[in-house]
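ESCALATION

Customer reports they have been waiting on this structure for their group meeting. Please prioritize. Original submission:
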Amino acid sequence: MSSIDARLAELGITLPVVVPPVAAYIPALVSGNLVFTSGQLPMVDGALPATGKLGAGVSAETGKQLARQCALNALAAVESVIGSLDRVTRVVKVVGFVASDPSFTGQPGVINGASEVLGEIFGDAGVHARSAVGVSVLPLDSPVEVELVVEFA
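Update from on-call: job pushed to the front of the queue and completed.
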């Protein structure tokens, strides 16, 4: 068992299968020693567990859990193009989009769901630069979407 696989097992995390694209793109692309993922929705078994906006029907805690799922979906996409997450040397950047009611300003806390699970999995190599952006709507009325840039060897 690889060290990341062992860490995932220790955390009780099973990576999902790669989420099929909902439009004309691929889930992840390698350029040099970087993997860029497409924006990942919080799909679980082919469906969104919640829809709507943060601050208008979707709680910050639910959003945080959905952002965590987005990050796991993104890691599945990374693994699909580099073969093993043991090859990841650093999570470089996380970009999180939060479908937000105009009065909602807790986007950073929501995207912490993605950031925290990456830190749990990769330790210091999971510490990254990040953007957390509020938007009016996301595909399929998803509350959150996350994309990653990771470096690998």
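Sent to customer with the following note: The chain has a mean pLDDT of 97.
Escalation resolved.
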